[in-house]
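We treat protein structure as text, and this decision shapes the records that our systems exchange. The remainder of this section carries one protein's record, kept here as part of the documentation:
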Amino acid sequence: MIYEFKGFIPVIHESAFIHPQAAVTGNVIIGKDVYIGPGAAIRGDWGGIIIEDGCNVQENCTIHMFPGKDIVLKEGAHIGHGAIVHGANIGRNCLIGMNAVIMDDADIGDESIVGALCFVKAETKIPPRSIVVGNPGVIVKSVSDEMLAWKTKGTQLYQQLPKEMYETWKPVEPLREIPANRPVQERNYMTLEETRKK
């Protein structure tokens, strides 16, 4: 659902896919090839939100801010299931892990990875290519070229997803039996550990 608020109507590029069970409100700008999953809440009611090209905001994420603040998710930012970004800026090609919480005025540097369930305190400044884990979040090491390549490939899948959703996604009635000709899904991405074992 897309909502106007106080005269602000979200601006969404035609190539972006916003799931109808997501809510996008007010002063929000969404770029090309962005995927917004079901249950996501993107509230530009008290400040502006810019989601640049190629980002994804997955299922049940919340993007909001302290009153009077504007925030940016830079190109290729990858916001994992259930994460909360509250008044923070997320750098280019970052990965924010599932159920992580990034608080007001935090700044996550480009190409950084924030682990699942991590809590990044308000006003924390994370340098580029940092790996952050824990509660409160601490930098444990730098993102290697191998990790960055793996992350980038995963985000590319999400950048392709909006087009695939427009081409194949539709509401249907469920089948009552498994058909004999049920297709097999391709395995086009592996965990980092599986990649290392190849």
